[in-house]
Amino acid sequence: MLLNREGWQVGKDLVYRLYKEEGLGLRKRPTGRRRAVVHRQERFRPTGPNQVWAMDFVADQLSDGRRFRSLAVVDIYTRESLAIECGQSLRGEDVVRVLNRVKEQRGLPQLLFCDNGSEFTGQIMDLWAYRNGVKIDFSRPGKPTDNAFCESFNGTFRAECLDTNWFQSLAEAKQVIEAWREEYNVSRPHRALADRTPAEFASQIALKRDLTETKTGQRLTQ
């Protein structure tokens, strides 16, 4: 005890009795881990294509040791690989350029899932999201499971493409990676899609939508 070290020959029972008599008290140390007062809401679960896209970076290197990065964009519902952009230095403006390219091909998502990297949190991304009416849902720091679908895709991308090829140049890497992306969409079945490929699943959804719109139009004209 600190009092004993200072020369006071007292025990804990005497100290406790004196504290009680003087109406004093010590704050008890809280037990257990501190928990957040407000629980994080569950992330939005898409029910159709183009509702939620996920983005993340994957790093690799060329045969001469030069590093490069790949930006992967995935549709969470259909599991389609929408784009894989490669470059030695990808910034926020490069992310926006890729999103605009995918936007021209298939429209806009409602939500974007991504981590808190500077490429995603900068002003240019914030402005793009505002102008296009897209909400960005950032992962919590240290919680890669918040972007699990893109993490899973990137694991497949690394295992089946990056780790099996030895790129001599960035141009070669772009060519091989784009060929792999197209093959992934049309040739790789997913159990979550009832063993259909992303392209098959997306085309079946589009066909059902077209049939529904046709039937609705016929009823309206009758």
How would you describe this structure to a colleague?
- The protein is of the alpha/beta class.
- About 4% of the residues have low confidence.
- α3 runs parallel beside α5.
- The protein is 44% helix and 15% strand.
- The protein has a five-stranded mixed beta sheet, with helices on both faces.
- It has a domain of 139 residues: Nucleotidyltransferase, domain 5 (2-Layer Sandwich), CATH 3.30.420.10.
Attribute tags:
222 residues; alpha/beta; Nucleotidyltransferase, domain 5; 5-stranded mixed beta sheet; 8 helices; 5 strands; extended; nucleic acid binding; RNaseH_sf; Putative transposase
The number of helices is 8
What's the CATH class of the domain at 52-190, please?
A: Alpha Beta
- Average pLDDT level: 85
Largest sheet: 5 strands, mixed
Q: Helix/strand/pairing class, anyone?
A: alpha/beta
Tell me which CATH architecture of the domain at 52-190 applies here.
Answer: 2-Layer Sandwich
Strand order, largest beta sheet: 3-2-1-4-5
The helix content, as a percent range, equals 40-55%
Computed CA radius of gyration, to the nearest angstrom: 28 Å
- Strand-residue proportion: 15-25%
Shape: extended
Count of extended strands: 5
* Fold-level CATH name of the domain at 52-190: Nucleotidyltransferase, domain 5
Protein name: Putative transposase
Organism: Silvibacterium bohemicum
InterPro entries: Integrase_cat-core (IPR001584), RNaseH-like_sf (IPR012337), RNaseH_sf (IPR036397), Transpos_IS3 (IPR048020)
Pfam families: rve_3 (PF13683)
